[in-house]
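Per reviewer request, we include the raw input and output of the structure prediction for the construct analysed in the revised manuscript.
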Amino acid sequence: HDPRDPTPDQPWYTPARYFARQLVIADSTLLTKRLTLADKVSTSLAGAGIYKRGGKKPHSADTVLKAFANVTLG
C-alpha cells in the first residue's frame, strides 16, 4: 500500500496495485503496456483467490485497469 494512492473503491484494488508494482519491478516495459500489465495482474489476483463477485471468474483486464487510475506504479 502506497500512502499516495487514492482510497480504493473496491477491496481488491489494494492487492491489484501491489501485484502491478511487483510486476513492474520485474519488467519495467509493462509501465507502457497497461492492458498487458492488467492482464497479468488479473492472473495474479486469481492465483491469490481474489475473483469477481460470485467468486468464480477472474477480473477482466479492463476492470483491473480501474484500480490503476491516479496511481503511480513505478
